[in-house]
Amino acid sequence: MNYLKLKRFSHHLQVSFTRLNVICRSWYQLYAPDSLKHRRNTDQTRLSDSSILAMLIWQAELGIESQRRFCKFFVGLSHSRFNRRAH
């Protein structure tokens, strides 16, 4: 996840997001139902479900309420697709 547009604190944010992503990946494997993990076309997605969960937690941690504003931090991340998958 090195697509951040932020320059000043980007290294600190990437380190904390990497840790959060590892935690969310392990929780997703343990607690997500099989119907969610084995749905159609999951191999064609750019972001995994665990990465989206990590991004939502990170958004709450940063205190950003608008998903559109949060998606502007990332290059190539569509806010409509992120919002759809988050719901």
Automatic annotation (TrEMBL):
Highest taxon in the source lineage: Bacteria
Annotated protein name in UniProt: IS982 family transposase
Organismal lineage: Bacteria, Bacillati, Bacillota, Bacilli, Lactobacillales
